[in-house]
Design goal:
By secondary structure, this protein is mainly alpha-helical. Helix content is about 80%, strand content about 0%.
């Protein structure tokens, strides 16, 4: 019996992980496993192509989306760590207030 390459789990984890980048870049906790699952499935499908009947291109696309989500989250997480290290929470609050003042001026 042939196995299916189901991309739904990878897409869901990647998209939720991308949405969670707003929480200090913590979406890498979801997009990281999504990328690892997709990478392992692609590797298995390439090693044993007769065991899988689904389209490998769809799984490669899901893997790329998971990788993009992982990179965005990692960059944002590193940025948050840098801001905390250099300015502490006061620096984050000051940056937030500056952005809010700029938005008020532009409105």
């Amino acid at each position: 019996m042939k196995k299916q390459l189901n991309t739904t789990l990878i897409y869901v984890l990647s998209i939720i992980g991308l949405l969670c980048c707003c929480f200090g870049g913590l979406g890498f906790l979801l997009s990281g496993p999504a990328y690892l699952i997709a990478h392992n499935k692609v590797k298995d499908a390439k090693e044993n192509p007769d065991d899988y009947e689904s389209n490998l291109n769809a799984m490669n696309t899901a893997k790329i989306i998971a990788l993009v989500s992982l990179i965005i989250n990692a960059i944002y997480f590193i940025r948050v760590l840098y801001v905390i290290y250099t300015g502490g929470f006061d620096g984050i609050e000051d940056a937030w207030n500056e952005v809010m003042e700029e938005l008020k001026k532009n409105s």
